[in-house]
Amino acid sequence: MQGEPPAVARQRVRRALRKARQATDLSQGDVAKRLGWSLSKMQRIEGGEVGVSATDLRALLGVYGVVDADEIERLTEGARASRRQRWSVAPEHRDHLTPGLRDLLQFESEATAIRVYQPLLIPGIVQTPALADVILGWWDRSLSDEDRRVRYDVRMLRRKHVIERAGAPEFLLILDESVIMRRVGGAKIMAEQLEDLVEVAQQPNVRIRIVPLDRGARVGNVGSYQIMSLGDDDDVALYREALDRDSVTYDQDENDIYREVFEKLWEQSFSEAATLRAITAEAARLRSSLDQHGVDD
Asked: Left if phi > 0, otherwise alpha if psi is -120 to 50, otherwise beta: which for 155?
């Protein structure tokens, strides 16, 4: 775990501690009672809400009967890493990003697979500069000029650092069909965005599908979300956003539900080839509308 981002290290330690406890058949309450802790402290540690100190980690491992020196050292280093604050996000940026977004950036840097469902908008990680500027401009009252500038800069860097980097994770994106029909910023900006999305889809690690309007309605209220896998099927983090708030969660049962929804939508969606044809056709339609109205594209 040495060198891992704090949020990722916290997830690794949390997962290892939970598995170690479950192997003993002890409940969270049983462990809390043995250590003289509150149940809420155990829940926060296993829920990944807080990093665990090295002292508390050793106490937990003692209760669980973990004696392997290498494993103890590995988890201790992970506990230390999980409590570091300075990682991956420039200090001048940190105060302008939400805690959820800061965690998201860390998990994206370590993910082996990323699954994104977006029922409303082109997701930030693949937005063009023009579209990102329009969308961030919507928050003219709740975000300062500096907030918007930082979030714009970070948004522009995410494609390079996540999708286009060497050893990039598998990137699976599901868009609702309405997303490509919505003229965010006008026909010209949206046409450029759709054309750029087709280019993104040429990356060997990128797969994009559209769920048709007549198939995705019953899960539309799920909202946008992103699942980041760190290797094993149960080693995942879930990022959700709604209006002006976002969060990263690690609850296995909850994450399994969102993964199941994603897989069902993936099966119900157009194939990647059909999706690219639909996106290309919509971009051409927008270009045609610009020509008809005499707009310089």
From this structure: alpha
Q: Which of 167, 170, 160, 161 is nearest to 109 (CA)?
A: 161
- What is the band of 297 on the pLDDT scale with cuts at 50, 70, 90? very low
- The tokens describing 43, both together, are 């829940």
What DSSP string describes 123-165?
A: -GGG--HHHHHHHHHTTTTTS-HHHHHHHHHHHHHHIIIIISS
**Exposed e or buried b for every residue in 263-277, given b needs 16+ CB within 10 A?**
eebeeebbeeeebbe
Give the single-character DSSP code of 219. Answer: G
Q: In what order do the strands lie in the sheet with 236-242?
A: 206-211, 170-176, 113-118, 225-229, 236-242, 245-249
Enter the DSSP assignment of 84. Answer: -
Q: Which residue has the tokens 């082996």?
A: 112
What is the mean pLDDT of the segment spanning 131-158? 89
Angle between helix axes 39-46 and 6-24 (nearest 10 degrees) is 120
Question: How confident is the prediction for the chain on average, in pLDDT?
Answer: 88
Task: Report the first-to-last Cα separation within the chain, whole angstroms.
Answer: 50
Collapsing DSSP to helix, strand or coil, 242 comes out as: strand
Tokens matching residue 284: 């051409």
Question: How many Å apart are CA 271 and CA 197, to the nearest integer?
Answer: 16
Q: Say if CB 117 and CB 262 are below 8 A apart.
A: yes
3-state secondary structure 12-54: HHHHHHHHHHHHHCCCHHHHHHHHCCCHHHHHHHHCCCCCCCH
Taken in order of first residue, the domains within the chain and their CATH numbers are: 6-82 (1.10.260), 100-292 (3.30.870)
CA distance linking residue 41 with residue 52, whole number of Å: 10
Cβ atoms 187, 286 nearer than 8 A: yes
Residue whose tokens read 């908008």: 121
* CA–CA gap between residue 24 and residue 1 (Å, rounded): 24
